Amino acid sequence: MIEKSIIRKQRMLLIVFSFLILATAVIGLGLGYSSVSYDRILPTILGQGEFKEEFVLFSVRLPRIVITLLAGMALALSGALLQGITRNELADPGIIGINSGAGVAVAIFFLYFPAEAGTFIYVLPLVAFIGALLTAVIIYLFSYSRTTGMEPVRLVLVGVGMSMALSGAMVVMISSADRIKVDFIARWLAGGIWGTDWPFVLAILPWLVVLIPFALMKANRLNILGLGEPVAIGVGLSVQKERIVLTLAAVALAASAVSVTGGISFIGLMAPHIARTLVGPRHQLFLPLSLLVGGWLLLIADTIGRNIIEPNGLPAGVMVALIGAPYFIYLLTKK
Amino acid sequence: MVRLQAKDLQIRYADRTIVENLSVSIPDEKITVIIGPNGCGKSTLLKAMTRIIPHQKGSVVLDGESIVKEPTKRLAQKIAVLPQTPESAGALTVGELVSYGRFPHQNRFGRLTKKDLEMIDWALEVTGTKFFKSHPVDSLSGGQRQRVWIALALAQETDMIFLDEPTTYLDMAHQLEILELLQQLNVTEKRTIVMVLHDLNHAARFADYIIGMKFGKIVKSGPSEEIITKPVLRELFQIDAEIGEDPRTGKPICITYNLVRGD
After folding, report:
1. pTM of the predicted protein model
2. Membrane-crossing residues (chain A) (predicted)?
């Protein structure tokens, strides 16, 4: 039923963004501290690099690129799903309080459960994930009413309120903590991608492997949800059930990403919006494109952020916000 | 045996009771029109009978089974609903929008079968919207768009079609076009049609059965001749109506009316 010309356009754009991702990754490899020079990248990948080159490429740079890409994809898909469920283009996992939920959990864990450095970094994503999920459940309970079910608008409002309350709690906790510990938490909140080792890929990849096909399978239902509740119920969509399942999927995606990267907002807002502008509102077309756009956006934000200020660079979350905040205002004024 | 019945229905929005203790049977294969003043609960009743909104007490039973218990997808194979002023369909084409009417008949992957495509074409054909199949819905005029939404309901291939004020925002000719289309579907395909209408003369002309509502209750129901009468209209709308006979259809017609003052 979809016009062939739009499908062709979408295929083209998928190729274009795949290429952009590849190009950004390659350029990023040759920039900054411990880089691999461009003419050595291919030989090193083929196993002919020196020890240092191999180490930098396989243990430092590649895992970071892969994590950044995956996290961007997860955030984009999460945002796209939330926007579909709430029928609000301004929905974003950061906005409905998931980042703050994860942030508070990280802060509590970091301040009050001193763990050994080795195990600590691997437990942290789990802690963030639990925090995000708990927050989502609380938001859900508050935005669910027995007479009207789950109202999307209330979900967003409760989320914003929740996110503010949690930020407040965070300030209280931080103000009574050590300098050094605060430093780590601050970096986490700013979204400096910190889980840059292969095991962290495992913290996020399974979610994507399961939830991307799941979301694509739900594409037509999301289209129908977009026609409004009465029409959707009328053609036999179990609106409540779909909303709950899709919200859970969106939370899981965002939580898995944020747990590894720290608090990153706006990707879930921008990527689906850009994709929708390019190929229109049909979910089967714009969801795959949002994945690539989201991955690319976060990758480029991280690449620029790492190289813009010596020596530590700007956290990717801050970079994204620098682009994302004006974009958000632009969307607001356009409405 | 009546297929669709509501019994002792109570419907509330938050703390406000809209419909109280209402029982009604929808005659099969007939056109039923619900009339009543603004806020009398006619749209609410229509939505509750099609499970668009929940009811708090009583029951709505279709084919001997409560519509709350029946899977919503299976219900959508029996009842199609056209809500009042549906949302904008955005950039979707007419063909795509109408294809969603096939959702209740599809499996989980949602491929359109040959049968689905035939039904979509048929729905576009009878509503006279086939020409617009690949046009965006938003580019159409109000009347065309309304017919596209009706095509969506038709593509659902149901025995019953519920419509909430299907003629709003349309000019006189387009209003008649829609109502004649529905009448034709009723006569040739034996579809049960239930709709909310504001125009009393349209109600009188097209309905086999009229339900007159006020304050969330049914004041009186029956054929046009029993409802479009001076006393019933006075009670329903507080109007003093002059009723005549339509020289073309023989149905009652409200020629002129005044507000009832005083008492």
Report:
1. 0.88
2. 12-33, 62-82, 94-113, 119-143, 155-177, 197-215, 245-271, 283-301, 313-332
Which of A165, A151, A129 shows the shortest CA–CA distance to A256?
Answer: A129
The predicted-structure confidence for B102-153, as pLDDT tens digits, reads as follows 999 987 766 888 999 999 999 999 888 899 999 999 888 888 888 899 999 9
Domains of chain B: total: 2
* Full domain range(s) for residue B150: 88-157
**Is B99 in the A-facing interface, judged by CB distances under 8 Å?**
yes
The partner residues of B6 in beta bridges, in order of sequence, read B24, B60
Domain A4-312 sits in CATH at 1.10.3470.10
Same domain, yes or no, for B63 and B187? yes
Q: Is A223 on the interface with B (CB under 8 A)?
A: yes
Q: Do both B142 and B25 map to the same domain?
A: no
Chain B contact present for A146, CB below 8 A: no
Residue A197 has a CB neighbour count (10 Å cut-off) of: 16
CB pair distance less than 8 Å for A236 and B47: no
Inter-chain residue contact B73 with A237, CB threshold 8 Å = yes
Distance CA B129, CA A326 (A): 43
Cα–Cα distances in angstroms (integers) from residue A5 to residues A8, A138, A292, in the given order = 5, 44, 20
Domain limits, chain A: 4-312
Residue indicated by tokens 């996110």:
A163
